[in-house]
Input
Amino acid sequence: MNETTFGLLRDVAARLERAIRSRDCPAIVALESQRRLVLSDYDYLRDDQAAHAFEDRAGEHARRIEAIRFVFAVSRVWVVAPGQVAARAASNHPLRPGEQEAITWLSFDITDGVDYGRVPYARRPNGEPIFDEPESFTVEVWPEERMPGFRLLRVLIADDGDSIESRRPSHQRGRRVGKPAGPGEAEGSSCWPAGAEVSVGVAGRCLS
Output
């Protein structure tokens, strides 16, 4: 991930953190070309239809302004099990054992390709959220199409015979990775184990 996209991630994460502190939970996307367009949707977590509609609208806006990068983020509840990472919609219900709240994000840059990760957070006894730094996954996994922001990605780049794979940088093609490990980063340092089945579903798809 380049510095420009990381700055965009910081901006989107900060917007969503402010919303979460206010007990709101919208989906937020920032689209960037010659100008920056920020969209939010407070119905995203209601059901699949609402989530798909927002990502479709965002994708059309991205194509209209000829976006060269975007960051999409929404709060989710994560659970990590051996060989699998899954998530469900955020809610006011208590967390179950092994669950953690996190801002789930996906970014796209026309040069650097796709990155994805999360911003984990915990809560004080009074419910105040305390946010950690953004995490970007470097292990050999690739998010499923239910990953928040993936539908937007398809709308933006799956045109004129292009595919998501063809628009990824050459060093990423054929590998199920978010980005290569950078200086000081350990390959596989995140919580997603290599070869894991990743199922970060769209809104409303709760864990069984």
Remarks:
- Residues 160-208 have pLDDT under 50 and may be disordered.
- Residues 3-200 form one domain.
- DSSP finds three helices and nine strands in the chain.
